[in-house]
């Protein structure tokens, strides 16, 4: 499974877009990029996933570079409730998810 | 989205006793569930993959006789921590995939916090 690299922490102002980067330079062709988040003392929450095309849903947008070696999760209008640890995971579909250290996003008023 | 429920959410037990944690998929069938453990300020660590009707697959370093997993139905998996000790105190989280794993989206339970005195 490809390893991911994320910054340990980021800050964002409430109402602004939060852009969370993830490097996955060793990703292989059949591996997806998944994003989950975990609010303190809760189970992780699925956000979005993609293979090579950009994806958007009601929560966020996922931008994957053309070479697929990195991606960015975009929360378009961050709120205080978006403060959480965000995990970028690269995995083949059908296999179990393994979590890295993630990025602690703090949304400030 | 699909709902996965864990029970109990918190449990305190004495050293040497066994504790059972339940994981239920409330509105879908899950042939595969996953059990994770999380220590304070650390990431989730996958413990085992629970398969309905067959033996669980444990990750390297996880004692199968210590952490008993039973996946007897398509909506229920249980994790039993046997002869619990203070070092087993942790946040245990289960997850399940709707529609069989392969859709890419896992749903997680709320977690169960175990404290062993």
How do the strands and helices of this protein lay out in sequence?
The complex is a heterodimer of chains A (109) and B (117).
Chain A: E1 9-13, E2 18-23, E3 31-38, E4 45-50, E5 55-56, E6 61-64, E7 70-75, E8 84-92, E9 103-108
Chain B: E1 4-7, E2 10-13, E3 19-25, E4 32-38, E5 45-51, E6 57-58, E7 67-73, E8 76-81, E9 90-97, E10 106-108, E11 112-116
Parallel strand pairs in B: 2-11
Antiparallel strand pairs in B: 1-3, 3-8, 4-5, 4-9, 5-6, 7-8, 9-10, 9-11
Structure description:
The complex is a heterodimer of chains A (109) and B (117). By secondary structure, chain A is an all-beta fold. Helix content of chain A is 0%, strand content 48%. Chain A has strands spanning 9-13, 18-23, 31-38, 45-50, 55-56, 61-64, 70-75, 84-92, 103-108. In chain A, a hairpin with a 4-residue loop joins strand 5 and strand 6. Chain A is globular and about 40 Å long. Chain A starts with 8 loop residues before the first strand and ends with a strand. In chain B, 0% of the residues lie in helices and 51% in strands. Chain B contains no helices and eleven strands. Chain A binds chain B through residues 32, 34, 36, 38, 41-46, 49, 87, 93-94, 96-102, and chain B through 1, 4, 6, 34, 36, 43-46, 49, 91, 93, 95, 101-111, 113.
